[in-house]
Amino acid sequence: MNLPVGTIANVATVLVGTVIGALAGRRFPEGVRTTVMATLGLATAAIGVRELLPTEEFPLVLGAVMLGAVLGELLHIEGGLHRLGDLLQQRFAQPTPVDVEVPETSRPVPRQGRFAEGFVITSLVFCVGPLTIVGSIQDGLGDAELLLVKAALDGFAAIAFAAVYGWGVAISALTVAVIQGGIALAAGTLDGLLTDPMLDGLAAAGGIMLLGISLRLLDLKQVRVANLLPAVVLAPLFVKWWG
Questions:
Q1: For 178-187, how does the pLDDT look when each residue is reduced to its tens digit (9 = 90+)?
Q2: What would you report as the CA-atom Rg of the chain, rounded to the nearest whole angstrom?
Q3: How many domains does the chain have?
Q4: Which of 53, 122, 143, 211 could join 172 via S-S bond, C-beta 3.0 to 4.6 A?
Q5: Parent domain of 181
């Protein structure tokens, strides 16, 4: 079994980026943090649109997202992740200094949920998308190139997110380790199982989720994006069965 070098690097860059962003963010004035949040929202929306464009099976993807949303709501995935984030905050995080808090009017979440929100948002951003799947499979087969590129991108993103959300971003490194590490370990089984149309369907479902995240970052609508997670599994299956 090959050592998942790409996954290890990805976890490391998220942690390093979080440290830099969380410490540097304390020095940023309110206007800078607000602009960073808006920029993250716009960038996330742009990535979401990019992921949607290649798919030729959008009706199937839309059906998968709708069904996934129903399943996610019934399973209360978002609420479970936020409760996990709150428990982790109680276990590991220190109270946030008053001078780094952003006024309620410029933040999309109440300050007591900031740690958990950072954990949930960044876990989704770092792990939703075909690069996570394909890169992790290749990583498990001994080729870490794609995940090393993703690690660099996620490291810079972690700096920006941590400047806004603080230390909750660091916990998403655990999500990266579990998901990408698990896929890397199963690489022999998954290699060749996902066709290009199935990956396009997965990317489109991830793109819709990223658009939902962008609405939260821009403080336009609090979409429970984590409840759409079943769509990431359903979309490629729908494409395989009926595409």
A1: 999 999 999 8
A2: 18
A3: 1
A4: 122
A5: 5-242
